[in-house]
Each structure stands twice: as structure tokens, then as C-alpha cells.
Automatic annotation (TrEMBL), chains A, B:
SUPFAM superfamilies: MoaD/ThiS. It comes from Sphingomonas mollis. CDD domains: Ubl_MoaD. Pfam families: ThiS (PF02597). This is Molybdopterin converting factor subunit 1.
Automatic annotation (TrEMBL), chains C, D:
It is an enzyme of class 2 (transferase). The lineage of its organism: Bacteria, Pseudomonadati, Pseudomonadota, Alphaproteobacteria, Sphingomonadales. Signal peptide: none annotated. This is Molybdopterin synthase catalytic subunit. The keyword Cell cycle does not apply. It comes from Sphingomonas mollis. The keyword Nucleotidyltransferase does not apply.
Amino acid sequence: MAIRMLYFAWVRERVGTGEELVDPPASVATVAALIDWLAAGSPTHAAAFAERGRLRAAVDQVFVSLDAPIEGAREVALFPPVTGG
Amino acid sequence: MAIRMLYFAWVRERVGTGEELVDPPASVATVAALIDWLAAGSPTHAAAFAERGRLRAAVDQVFVSLDAPIEGAREVALFPPVTGG
Amino acid sequence: MIRVVVSPANIDLAAEMALAEANGVGAVATFTGLVRADPGVVGDVETLELEHYPGATEAALEGLACEAQTRWSLASVTVVHRVGPMRPGERIVFVAASSRHRGAALDACAFLIDRLKTDAPFWKRETRSGTAAWVEAREADDDAARRWT
Amino acid sequence: MIRVVVSPANIDLAAEMALAEANGVGAVATFTGLVRADPGVVGDVETLELEHYPGATEAALEGLACEAQTRWSLASVTVVHRVGPMRPGERIVFVAASSRHRGAALDACAFLIDRLKTDAPFWKRETRSGTAAWVEAREADDDAARRWT
């Protein structure tokens, strides 16, 4: 099933878009695996996701760690550590 | 030398005035001794100062404990624990 | 900036905030105390009257403000305390602390109101059902003030 | 009352305070965050831009507000966060907590801003001398947020 990817802040700028639809194979089971799969398919994504330690994620708008499962996810967001307030 | 006594809140109400001039003998050396001396001279003061544990004091506008000396004091204030804010 | 006001006038919150914000700071923490109707066995509070020790009260508040400013390197400290009669819903006290970062402003604001409760000569008298009574000091206030020593 | 607003509009402090005070409470603690010019090697901040995650941001702030209200039995919780471009001196964020007594209001206010800094999806981009750069997260924010867990 297609997943709606959202990117924010410098992740958005480096990927070059704030939103895209992707359709990973069923073997891609976690956020980290999804990042690897996206990076393998595009040098732009690979560059955007190069500093894995600076990436944070949300699955269906819930903040998760990168090893969280994505089974059934409809929306996955990738972004840097937050800096609000 | 005369001391200006100030009374606040229910101490003022019980003494019946907010301010008076008093002239204790030199042997009256502390706030506690001053309270005793005032109480000995007037039943109204004795009643106002009956609950010694609920009295607080300032000597020349500085908060002090009741055993503080009053030598050279020009103004002594007696009042209940504060309840501001 | 240190601003200490003891006055029977209403506390103008917007004006006080504008002063606290006017220093190029990043953080402003405030505390506002309001008169509560506080229903009791003898009815609601109709009037709250604040008595103070003129001169000594201002000096005590300035001392607290200076202590806070030194301890937390604040850009501004504001303490405004109303005196005289007031009604439920009205503001009794407003304190503000401003600084570059939030930690100093938040801590200083809590310090100011905790210490004000125990160190500044104010006395409250409530009137309920036409009968006035002096408010007793709370032991919790002493405990809160001791946190900062 | 829980009030959460995420909007590009200026934050109207007097209006927000009036809402927080309108509950017969005795204590209102607030925190206001302002854009600092924050002079650096490449000049002052000219513009600060706040990006957010629509939907998830509001949900995160509502979650924080509910957590605070439950934990401290608050009469009201307000979180207003500005998004979009703004200038030095303007308000980025306003949080308020109101309660009967001051301890709950002060603690909840500090909790809200500490946790907002780490748990709500906002990202800041500063422009200095015409060049935009994303603001890095501060480790101190993580430490402050952990205090409350």
C-alpha cells in the first residue's frame, strides 16, 4: 500500500519536496528500512538522509524511533530534531 | 530615646492604634522585652500581645526575631505573619 | 530594569508586559495572583483588603527584585502589588522576570512570588457576609520560600 | 479550559490573559517566548521563520495541555504558537496555566514550555545578512524536558 511521505525543515529542502507518495515492498518493515530503501533508489534522498543520527520520524503523526514498524502506516514524516518555542 | 511603635493588621486593631511613641527604660534591650514592658503597662497591649508566637517584628524596617536588640532603634513594628501575594 | 510598584490602582497587565518585553529578551515568565471568591461556610469573599507597611514593603520588594536579578542575570524584574480594597477576580499581584533563555525567567518568577508571600509585609483581610476576618498565614508558603535559601 | 492555537497571527497577550483569568482562579503563570536579534558573527537575526507539521503539531500541543491539566488539576491551559515569518521582538509562543494556588500554575507553565521545546514539531529558520539557516536543537532542551518524566 502506498505511503504518504512528509519532509520538514532541511530534510524537505534536501529531498526537494515536502511530500511524495511511495510504495515500498512488504520486506521494508521499519522506518529505518524505509529510509534505506528511499536512499537506495535516489542519490538526492541518499544525500538528504546521510546524517541518520539527525533524523527524527513520525508514523501516522505519532513520534517514533527509527526502528519503529511501519506496517499499515499511511503517513510517515521525516524531519530534524524540533526547535520550537 | 523615644521609639515610634507601628502596629499592623489585627495587632493594630487590638492595640487600638496604628502608631504611638513610647519611651522604655534603658533596661528594655530586646523586642521581646519591649513587648513585655508595653504589656505590663496596659491591659489593652497585654491582650493584643497575648499570643506571642503569632507576633512578628521589624526594627527600623528590617525584619528581626523577637530576641533582636533594640538599642538605638527609632521605629519598631509589630504585626502578624504576613499574608501578601 | 527593576520595577516595583505598590499601589491601590488596578494592575495594567498589558502595560507591565510591554515593559518586561522591551529589552530585546527571549523569555518572559509571569505570575498573576487574583482575588478568589473562595466559597466558605460563611459565604463567598465579598471584599479583600490589603494592608501594608509603607516604606518597608517597597524596600522588601526591591530587595527581592535585586536578589533575583543578581542570582539569575535577568534583563528585567517587575513586582506590582495592589493594596487597599478589591473584589473577587481582580489582580492582587503581578510579577515578571525576563531573560535571554527561559530557565532563568521561570525560576526567578517562582522565586519572586514564593519569597514575596513570606518576606513582604502585606496582610489580607476578607469580608464574607459582611464580616471581616484577617487571613491566616499558610505554612505551605514558608515551605515554598525555604526552597530558595 | 484547554486552548491550543497554531497560527501566523500576532499573539494577543491581553486577550489570552483575559481568557486564562476568566475562571475564578487565584493564580495564573505564563511564559512568553520572543524572537531575539541575537547578534552573531554573520549579523543580527532579521527574520525568524517557523515551520510546523500541520495536524500533528496541534495534536502534540493538545496532548501536552491535557497532560498538564490532569497532572496539576488546572482550571485552564493555554498554548498559542505562532508559525510563519516573524521579526525580532515579536512573540513566538505564549503558554499559560491557571489554578487555585500558585504552585500548580508555576510548575505546569514550566512543564508546558520545556516539553513543547522537545515534543512539538516546529522548526526555526533564521535569516542573518540575507542568508537563511536552520536553527540546531539544543541539548539543554532535552535535559529540561526530561525533568518532567
